[in-house]
Amino acid sequence: MKVIVAKPGLDGHDRGAKVxxxxxxxxxxxxxxxxxxxxxxxxxxxxxDEDAAALGLSTLSGAHDVLIPAICEGLIKEDLxxxxxxxGGIIPASDRDALxxxxxxxxxxxxxxxxxxLDFLNEVSSRKKSGESVGVGESSEWRWE
Amino acid sequence: xxxxxxxxxxxxxALQGSRRDLSRLLTLIESGFEPNLSLQESxxxxxxxxxxxxxxxxxGNFVDYWSSxxxxxxxxxxxxxxxxxxGALLGDRMRMASADSGDxxxxxxxxxxxxxxxxSAYISTMIDCLAAxxxxxxxxxxxxxxxxxxxxxxFADRILLVDGPxxxxxxxxxxxxxxxxADIIVVNKSDLEGSEQAAxxxxxxxSMDTSPPSVHxxxxxxxxxxxxxxxxxxxxxxxxxxxxxxxxxxxxxxDSRLLNHPELIRxxxxxxxxxxxxxxxxxxITLSEG
Lengths: 145, 290
Ligand SMILES: Nc1nc2c(ncn2[C@@H]2O[C@H](COP(=O)(O)OP(=O)(O)OP(=O)(O)O)[C@@H](O)[C@H]2O)c(=O)[nH]1
Ligand SMILES: [Mg+2]
Prior knowledge:
The complex is a heterodimer.
Chain A: E1 2-6, H1 15-26, E2 30-33, H2 40-50, E3 54-59, H3 67-77, E4 84-89, H4 93-102, E5 104-108, H5 114-129
Parallel strand pairs in A: 1-2, 1-3, 3-4, 4-5
Chain B: H1 5-15, H2 19-30, E1 44-49, H3 55-68, E2 73-79, E3 88-90, H4 92-95, E4 105-111, H5 120-132, E5 137-143, H6 147-152, E6 158-163, H7 168-176, H8 178-181, E7 184-187, H9 195-205, E8 214-217, H10 226-235, H11 242-259, H12 264-272, H13 278-287
Parallel strand pairs in B: 1-5, 1-6, 2-4, 2-5, 6-7, 7-8
The complex binds guanosine-5'-triphosphate and magnesium ion.
The site of magnesium ion has 5 residues of chain B, from helix 3 and helix 4.
């Protein structure tokens, strides 16, 4: 699967994002890492240009309650609603439902093993193969838990 | 995706300027689709050189320069797929600061996917599509870590060979024959020690050539030497590489025929256990063609 790993927001650490990018590569995925400090518009544009099937958002800075919604809405607006969106980082439990309702299919906490993210992407593949629509702008109720 | 009508819709929409559908079209081409396009005039440059020489950073400078002057710049950045996992880390985009900056810049990362014969088979189709969609400067980045990677650059009209301060790497390029193809040689990282000597060493090793490529010393971090380099690129008269391209296409088609041959595994086994000679093996494969 072609996956974009992006880091919205202003914090300057991307070790975590790079570790994830490498793990996904080793799991057989083609991974584009966008680099630090990307705006939602830039992330949407990169997702479009790369025609990525999935977008992973890594946040540390509490960017999730503004930036992730802006990205999800931007994707849908640009006719990229088939993109599967997942998020990782420090996201309080109380904010998770809101993100799921926006179409984010999985939220991985700080301690998540990279193999769980690979399992998630495998599950996404098999659901897509069987015709289920699990993109950010699509109807499925499914979420990874 | 089903073949036929849907693909033609995507082609039409891309030609009418949909960025979304241009991007989807490139994906289709990557999986073997060949759109029917009229012959295109295109402006292309291949940027190659050893890993980490600064190709992407340099291209970032080109993108800024050209897009700010009204050009539409498209970049195809190729990185190798891991032969073990089949995955790839496509890290070029990250080094091009302005990759996501606006309507006049389009950057697409591509994995080599271990296509038999490399990506060569698809690159020229992608170039045609980009040109047909109005992208008037097309840049192809390939890492020069192996012959077939360098060879992708043969699909561009101009070839830029980028190296860092430690000249050792360019010896690899000499071996792969790319240095003969280069129109312009760039020694990047002029801020680092050894870069001047590297540029001199390259210049003197080329002094026997009748029309040696020009050698530029630049720094993609602070922009030193970049404008002169770009002027040189713009004034570079592209050589015709049609013979070379035809050769590349033939080699790549040949490789993929061989690697997809139904008898390949059996013939390799016979060869491995010494039951046939190499000549027999070749005969076996060419005879059982079909
Ligand atoms: N000092 C210095 N470092 C540079 C310069 N240009 C690039 N670099 C650094 O060199 C490293 C590699 O740069 P890239 O632009 O990714 O090089 P590349 O040739 O595209 O690398 P691959 O695509 O991985 O082969 C990065 O850490 C850059 O920051 C320069 O002019 N000076
Ligand atoms: Mg690069």
